[in-house]
Each structure stands twice: as structure tokens, then as C-alpha cells.
Amino acid sequence: DSHYTCCFDFHQPPSLPPPPPRPPFAPGQAPAPPPPPPCIHDDSKCSSSGNDCYADRRSEAQTCDEGYNASPHPEDPLSEHRYTCYPPYCRCDASKCSSDGDDCWADLRWEAQTCRDGYLPIAIRDSHYTCCFDFHQPPSLPPPPPRPPFAPGQAPAPPP
To answer: Which pLDDT belongs to residue 1?
Structure first.
């Protein structure tokens, strides 16, 4: 009768997973690129005179560095002069805010943060938001058709 136990051999290195593939990659084997950062404004990219994110658009253009896009500033969306800059893949426009007052302020306990023209609400802080169109995200689907009971004049036509 012999008894024995099997133990981990500490003199052997543990087996490691295979290393990740290196370029050139076989078709379909390239790793996915990292996702882009979200659409967040960056006042440090403002490049108009004084780099202060103020330009009247008549005598001074609203410009940004590093390919960023100028857009109305979400903290002052009704100002024609104050602006900010968003990453190249984002188009943010505080004038697209459609909550009560069109001012990009909506307390979610009582009011939805909404946008026009396919733009999506992006939270800034507390009840403050802006509207962005993110070219890296697939477009949102259209709303589903209405279901019964229909409001007067909203019922679909009967089939032929």
C-alpha cells in the first residue's frame, strides 16, 4: 500500500497565457481599438485671441486647437460670444437643448434632459447638460410606432 499526494512544483514556472498577437495581424485578428473618450468640452483648446473662449464671430473667429470643434459653451448656451471646444469626433451644440427654457438646465426629478435634431443629452453636472452628436456611436433608432389606444387622428390606415 503506497500513498502519495500531488503538490504544486514550485521549481517550475507557472504556465502563462500565450502572448497577444503582434502586427502584421491575420485578417480579422487585429485587436479592437480602444473606445474614444466621451464628448467632454475642453476650454484649454480655445485658440481665439486671448485663448479665453470669447469671440464675437464678426471680428474674431471662434477657433480651437488640435482639430477640436468650436461650439456654444454649455455653461452659457444663449451667448453668441462664449464658446468651448469638443473633440473632433463630437459635434456638441448647446443650442440643441430642448428642455423647458432651451437653457440646458433640467432637474431629472421633474424634467427630462432633451435635445433636438438627433443630438443626445450629455450630463455636465447636477441638472446641467449639453447636446452632442457622437460620430463614433451608431445613430439611435427611430421611435417605435404608436400602439393602441390611439389619440384622435393618430391611428394607422387600415391594410388594403
So the answer is: 56
